[in-house]
Structure prediction request, 222 residues.
Amino acid sequence: MRILLVEDDELIGTTLRADLERAGFAVDWARDGVEGEYLGREEPCDAVVLDLGLPGRSGLEVLRHWRAEDNRVPVLILTARDGWQEKVDGFKAGADDYLGKPFHVQELVARLIALIRRASGGNVGSLEAAGLKLDEDTQTVRLGDGRELQLTGTEFRLLRYFMLHPGKVLSKSRLTEHVYDNDSDKDSNVIEVYVRRLRQKLGEDLIQTRRGQGYVFGGEAS
Ligand code: CA
Prediction:
């Protein structure tokens, strides 16, 4: 899953990006409000972490512009610790959640995952689909027969995206966009390699190929 991070503080941004990547997200980082607004409009991200005090354009303005364009991407705003007024303004502007600085990154990750699941219509809790259970903390998957398998970072990101969209036709380019960040070398052929690996690990029938369309995870396309 792909996160847009809009944060002008170099130290916080560097740390957050590394933490989010470790948690299995692909991260695009914008350092000012203008770039952040642009990326949020043009890039298909699954959630946004938005600082409010930004050079160029404030986080609240950025958020208002997105919502005015009917961009519904889940947005978590970063506020000052006791900034109740910021929270109120943020929710009025269309924020989905907030976190006061300083915060624990585990809480940020948990909130982002909950936001993304809610937005994709899934359950909040552990991620289960097609008889598999995905553990976000250890990046392992439990199979129907109880076996637990370790996944690499890319396998984890790809499987999580599949499990959030069971029964849907997902094109290779869509998968690539949500599994890799902006800076990575995007090659949709790589998706084929990782789909093959997931099939080898989890069973050949789990991910079906739709010629010319993409892949369907866990059963028939609806
Ligand atoms: Ca700031």
